[in-house]
Amino acid sequence: MQEKRNIILVALVLSVVLMFAKFSAYLITSSNFILTDAAESIVNVLASAFAFYSITLASQPKDINHPYGHGKVEFFSVFIEGTLITIAGIGIVFKAAYNLFYPHEVQNLITGAIIIGVTGGINGLMGYYMIRQGKILKSITIEADGRHLITDMVTSSGLVVGVIFIHLLGYLWLDSVLSIGVGLYIIFTGYKLVRKSVGGLMDEADFNVVQDIIKVLNDSRKEEWIDIHNLRAQKYGHELHIDCHMTLPNYFDLNRVHDEVALVDKLINEGASVKTELFIHTDPCLPDCCHYCSMPNCPIRFEAKSKDIEWTMDNITRNKKHFED
């Protein structure tokens, strides 16, 4: 967790430095187009500051008020970041639209382009690093902040090209038109972050995570595991929580049942590459399970096995045993 905080802290300090550099470029040029990048840098600072707070809070241990931990605050952090980006984009569009009808003189565009180009390059390098580390550390906050910085790099690159065109062609209206285009792109980026955060806060299913779990279970499947159903996966920050039902032979004693459940827990935690807390409800087998049960020398078998059932997204997430339609 300390590594996460260090990454966000570096991003925060860097954002403050680059914000001052971008506003210096705006003061030098008086360009709305450059102001769009400078305004977004304020969002970078606010987002990194809140991300640092959320990761610090998410690292707190579980308590009586938060039995699943504090990890969901990371989704809230992403929501705040996406909202701020969207507001910045809307403000940029309105100001650029105003100056489209009431243009003002711009100057020193090449100097401004150089400053913005350098800041964009630095943000791009930091963004790629944060996305990579966010995936490794399973942190949606770090990954979202990294994607925000990548967005900043893209807009800065487009800005540099646009500023050069404005300088060469001398069309003042082009400054406002390009600003509107960048503002709309920023709004779209903010929307995607808000959508992702709301999905996490509403416990929207992460199909990639569920598919990884299903693969681990299929690859390690034992004859004793007659079926697994009603599987639900929820992410709480860097942790994953799984509920499921597992059907075992009804003549297993409690110790044997515990051993099988513990093995599933171990396999998922080792194979799914994410810290996982499992709540497994065990069901006793029924005579209707016999036709797909692989248990050898079963003392209570009613009929021979006649069917193999592969565990899939469809049958492992339904709240019913595999013989039920």
Name the poorly predicted regions: none
> Briefly, what CATH class of the largest domain?
Mainly Alpha
Query: Mean pLDDT, nearest integer?
Result: 81
State the helicity in percent bands: 55-70%
Keywords for this entry:
Alpha-lytic protease prodomain-like, 3-stranded mixed sheet, 9 helices, 64% helix, transport
Can you tell me about this structure?
The protein has 325 residues and is mainly alpha-helical. The protein folds into two domains: 2-201, Alpha-lytic protease prodomain-like (Up-down Bundle); 207-317, Alpha-Beta Plaits (2-Layer Sandwich), CATH 3.30.70.1350. Helix content is 64%, strand content 9%. It has nine helices and three strands, in the order αααααααββαβα. A three-stranded mixed β-sheet has the order 1-2-3. Helix 8 links the parallel strand 2 and strand 3. Helix 2 packs antiparallel against helix 5 (140-169), helix 4 (109-136) runs antiparallel to helix 5 and helix 7 (207-219) crosses helix 8 (254-271). The model has no long low-confidence stretch (mean pLDDT 81).
Task: Indicate the topology.
Elements: H1 2-29, H2 32-58, H3 73-101, H4 109-136, H5 140-169, H6 172-201, H7 207-219, E1 227-236, E2 239-248, H8 254-271, E3 276-284, H9 313-317
Parallel strand pairs: 2-3
Antiparallel strand pairs: 1-2
Helix pairs in contact: 1-2, 1-4, 2-3, 2-5, 2-6, 3-5, 3-6, 4-5, 5-6, 7-8
Subcellular location: Membrane
Keywords: Membrane, Transmembrane, Transmembrane helix, Transport
Pfam families: Cation_efflux, ZT_dimer
